[in-house]
Amino acid sequence: MTRAAAIAHATGYFDSGAFKADLARRVAIPTESQNPDRDGELARYLDSEIAPALTALGFTCRKWMHAKARGPFLFAERHESPALPTVFGYGHGDVIRGLDAGWKQGLSPWTLVERDERYYGRGVVDNKGQHTINIASQAAVLATRGKLGFNAKWLIEMGEETGSPGLREICAEHRDLLAADVLVASDGPRLTADRPTISLGTRGAYPIDIWIDAREGGHHSGNWGGLLSSPSIQLVHALSTITGPRGQIRIPEWVPDGIPDSVKHALANCAVKSGPGDPVIDPTWGEPGLTLAEKVFAWCTFDILAMTAGNPESPVNAVPPRAWARGQIRFVVGTDPDEFLPALRRHLDRHGFPMVQIAKGRDDIMNATRLDPEHPWAQFAAASIARTTNQKPAVLPNVGGSLPNDIFSEGLGLPTIWVPHSYPGCSQHAPNEHFPVALAREALAIMAGLYWDLGEGGTPARQGR
Fold first, then answer.
1. What is the arithmetic mean of pLDDT over 451-459?
2. Whole-angstrom distance, CA of residue 397 vs CA of residue 409
3. Within this chain, do residues 63 and 185 fall inside the same structural domain, yes or no?
4. In terms of Cα–Cα distance, which of 302, 189, 171 is closest to 240?
5. Mind listing the pLDDT tens digit for each residue in 160-204?
6. What is the count of structural domains for the chain?
7. Does residue 45 belong to any structural domain of this protein?
């Protein structure tokens, strides 16, 4: 009954082929939450795969529905003692569209194929493979110790790929039932494939529509060019004032006053680099004076995601009446999203663009969250992973992308520890999504070690809930 035995049990599950078999069954269920024709598959995934797996481990399971949600939620709980800490786990069983036609020859989104030391299939990393690893690692601890040594709760949703509709409401409605001491979950990529990583929060995402409606209808550019204002040209000039030519944000309210020392210290040990198949990093882009890690994990960025004017597919000789762009701010803790639009309005008016209209985009806002890297739970998780892998993990104060983490960190008041089991080049959300075989095996060892340590006592003191 040792930590090493629990880790050996977890890796033995992998070596026996059982992990591959479990993941293959789950990948074969086409849980595309963006496809209304797949609604029945969302429920089937929970009913046929996740609920039975957790029930076998002594969890009591129940399904929740919400009017806003595309699919059901599964809540599962295993209670061992009120004196023990409670660990909250999260995952999502829905996947992005399969994009079947784009996969390499011999591959399919709904069939797990092992090729070139990789598992291919939709959901192998986002997120079926990741929560399969965590559930199996809890099973390894139970098989070795006969108990977890902590209370465990799980919440699996089926709509994360459509913005987690209903998740916030479900967590608010069941806040007392979901009470815990810490969230330990897995989603997103590691810093690099060979570097175990923990992330403690997320950057936020704020969509902005920016447009000019100049007049009704287009007018012949020969007869009216030089007499009518061009909304396309005006909009391009207006957008060019928001950042410098290298992407530095020029609206002070859109960036933090600085980077906390604890965040700087953590990121000093996190080298950002392009891996095989990744795009080449432009080191001169973004805020000058920051390291690459600080740019993506500790600062804000603004991008134009889409633009239209006239008829791009078939241009005609007319001054277009309208120009539109969708912008997005990726923001960190230390900025106030309620100020983004008022600050932009003042900025555009000051630069002579009162004709430019702005509004929040229709997408939901993902709020910025960050647990301090010096927080006791962050230190606990990092020490456990270092003990298992014999290397210091990368500790990211927050990931560069977005997750519904504020629902857990703010809504439920939980310290949040994310242990990702993927890597940046995994083709997540694209054809040929894949999971390196060696990374999957190491992830099972990491999580078995972490869950073992959580049940050994000596966890950070329970905070007021």
1. 95
2. 13
3. yes
4. 302
5. 999 899 999 999 999 999 999 999 999 999 999 999 999 999 999
6. 2
7. yes
Q: How far is Cα 88 from Cα 79, in angstroms, rounded to an integer?
A: 12
Among candidate residues 329, 360, 391, the one where a domain is terminated: 360
Quote the pLDDT of residue 53.
98
Tokens of 79: 């209670």
**Residue range 325-363, pLDDT digits in tens:** 999 999 999 999 999 999 999 999 999 999 999 999 987
First to last CA, the chain: 33
- What is the pTM for the complete model shown? 0.92
Alpha-carbon distance of 426 to 429, in angstroms, equals 9
φ/ψ of residue 89, rounded to 5? -115, 150
Between CA 440 and CA 113 the distance in angstroms is 15
Tokens of 379: 């230190």
Q: Is residue 462 part of a domain?
A: no
Average pLDDT over residues 437-447: 98
Whole-number Å distance between alpha carbons of 330 and 366: 9
Domain, as residue range, for 250: 205-256+300-360
- Return the HEC string of the chain: CCHHHHHHHHHHHHHCCHHHHHHHHHHCCCCECCCHHHHHHHHHHHHHHHHHHHHCCCCEEEEECCCCCCCCEEEEEECCCCCCCEEEEEEECCECCCCHHHCCCCCECCECEEECCEEECCCCCCCHHHHHHHHHHHHHHHHHHCCCCCEEEEEEECCHHHCCCCHHHHHHHCCCCCCCCEEEECCCECCECCECEEECEECEEEEEEEEEECCCCCEEHHHHECCECCHHHHHHHHHHCCECCCCCECCHHHCCCCCCHHHHHHHCCCCCCCCCCCCCCCCCCCCCCCCHHHHHHCCCEEEEEEEEECCCCCCCCEECCEEEEEEEEEECCCCCHHHHHHHHHHHHHHCCCCCCEEEECCCCCECCEECCCCCHHHHHHHHHHHHHHCCCCEEECCECCCCCHHHHHHHCCCCEEECCCECCCCCCCCCCCEEEHHHHHHHHHHHHHHHHHHCCCCCCCCCCC
